[in-house]
Amino acid sequence: MTDSILVERDGPIATVVLNRPEKLNALTKPMWKRLGEVMEELSADDGLRCIVIRGAGEKSFAPGNDISEFETDRANPEQAKDYGEILHRSLAAIDNCRHPTVAMIHGICVGGGLEIAALCDIRICGESSRFGVPINKLGLVMAHAELGPLLRLAGRAVALEILLEGRVFGAAEAKDKGLVTRVVYDEDVEVAAYDAAERIAAGAPLVARWHKAFIKRLEEGTPLTESEKDEGYACYGTDDFAEGYRAFLEKRQPDFKGS
């Protein structure tokens, strides 16, 4: 099952592939476990600057969980809790990843697939992509850890609309609802996603990590401590800051080292 989650590397950009195209990349329990392990490993890699998450092929990002597992792995609350702990650890690994993440969305992105995409920092999809959470038709709920990212993106009213109706909708509506950041022609999805990743990778990596951490901290809504406020000035003591402003004055591209 390790082949169902692939990791490809191109310099400072890693690609994580949900690799089960024969099932439209439907996620299984082993896939969720491996996805979390991979994201934790990549987050700890200081040589990385961006991670692209995608589904294999161009028909589907992911349609959610493999329903055939319900009879064997989620047939009762006890099994569901065991499954959920694995799933939630993997979602947390994406959410807590230090590096910027880009979801490259071809085709179907519903249920658990949407949960993964919602945790990425940038979500780029094609015009024919489809979104939704039709689990009310299965008698299922999104647990708190799964619901949180959707609520953050779409707000209470839209999150409830998506969950209560269980409707699957198109890319334009997903953009209106705040579920995706960019919609492009289907044939341009891969180019647009990697162009975004390359722009991210060209920036100062410490700055990207700080911005992710600062925004997550502000979302908590509690007052900042003095030491947290001081962290907003730590960038001025980095080699990357010195390189950045000198490169600007010298009219050249900066060569950031992440220090």
List keywords for this structure.
single chain; 259 residues; alpha/beta; 2-enoyl-CoA Hydratase, Chain A, domain 1; 2 domains; six-stranded mixed beta sheet; four-stranded mixed beta sheet; 16% strand; globular
Summarize the structure.
The chain has about 260 residues and is an alpha/beta fold. The chain is built from ten helices and ten strands.
State the CATH superfamily name of the largest domain: 2-enoyl-CoA Hydratase, Chain A, domain 1
Helix content: 40-55%
Which class best fits the helix and strand makeup? alpha/beta
Biggest sheet record = 6 strands, mixed
What proportion of the residues form beta strands (DSSP E)?
A: 15-25%
How many structural domains are formed by the residues?
2
Task: Work out the helix count.
Answer: 10
Can you tell me the residue ranges where pLDDT is under 50 for at least 5 consecutive residues? none
CATH topology assignment of the largest domain: 2-enoyl-CoA Hydratase, Chain A, domain 1
Task: Report the top-level CATH class of the largest domain.
Answer: Alpha Beta
SSE sequence, one letter per element: EEHEEHHEEHEEHEHEHHHH
| Radius of gyration over C-alpha positions, nearest whole angstrom | 19 Å
Question: What number is the mean pLDDT?
Answer: 96
CATH architectural category of the largest domain: Alpha-Beta Complex
Number of strands: 10
Distance between the termini: 37 Å
| Strands in their spatial order, largest beta sheet | 1-2-3-5-7-10
Shape field: globular
Oligomer state equals single chain
